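Input structure tokens:
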């Protein structure tokens, strides 16, 4: 049962017992706190465990919910994606008995940080409403300076230079479709800072030809 709550600047997770094999000492009981209490992508989250019962704990093992693990009573971890994670602490005491504690934490996107600077590599896809095949891989290598966005668009295995802008939350990037030198493509869309995503429609000659979506 999850008794997680916020106390001061900490998130608190409380847990019960697991069945052990010692006759004279109770099972280990643990809880843990984490700070900051509302972590964002890229923050270093500090987890601190406390023993609340049982024999002396000799092993503290952590599972951070994203495939990473750690050891120790105090550990640090950084999350790279905005979503919920179930963090699990497994302890072993000097009697060989185990206890566990789990809590779900929410990691949010770093508000505004991704969209204020689009420089970097963005991976995703572009879908056509008219051409076949209708879905292509799309990789944008962007350099964002002020309101100007320059770089290259990689469609499939071919590359084309492009130029665009990011003004008032509206993204625009124009390049020549690599397989068709006479076709000028304009990506138009917005940036979602909570998940680090650019997305929208793409145009040829003012007509919507499909959709596109990339993440950094």
């Amino acid at each position: 049962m999850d008794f997680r709550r916020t106390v001061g600047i900490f998130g608190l997770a409380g847990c019960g017992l697991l069945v052990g094999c010692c006759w004279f000492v109770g099972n280990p009981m643990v809880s843990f706190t984490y700070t900051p209490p509302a972590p964002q992508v890229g923050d270093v989250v500090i987890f601190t465990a406390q023993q609340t019962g049982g024999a002396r704990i000799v092993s503290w093992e952590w599972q951070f919910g994203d495939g990473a693990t750690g050891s120790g009573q105090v550990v640090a971890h950084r999350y790279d994606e905005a979503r919920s994670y179930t963090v699990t602490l497994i302890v072993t005491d000097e009697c060989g008995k185990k206890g566990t504690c789990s809590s779900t934490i929410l990691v949010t996107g770093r508000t505004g940080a991704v969209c204020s600077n689009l420089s970097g590599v963005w991976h995703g896809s572009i879908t056509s409403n008219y051409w076949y095949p209708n879905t292509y891989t799309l990789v944008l290598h962007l350099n964002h300076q002020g309101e100007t966005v320059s770089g290259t668009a990689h469609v499939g295995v071919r590359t084309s230079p492009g130029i665009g802008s990011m003004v008032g939350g509206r993204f625009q990037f124009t390049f020549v479709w690599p397989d068709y030198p006479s076709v000028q493509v304009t990506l138009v869309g917005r940036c979602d800072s909570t998940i680090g995503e650019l997305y929208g429609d793409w145009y040829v000659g003012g007509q919507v030809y499909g959709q596109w979506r990339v993440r950094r």
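Confidence is low (pLDDT under 50) at residues 1-20. Helices lie at 113-116.
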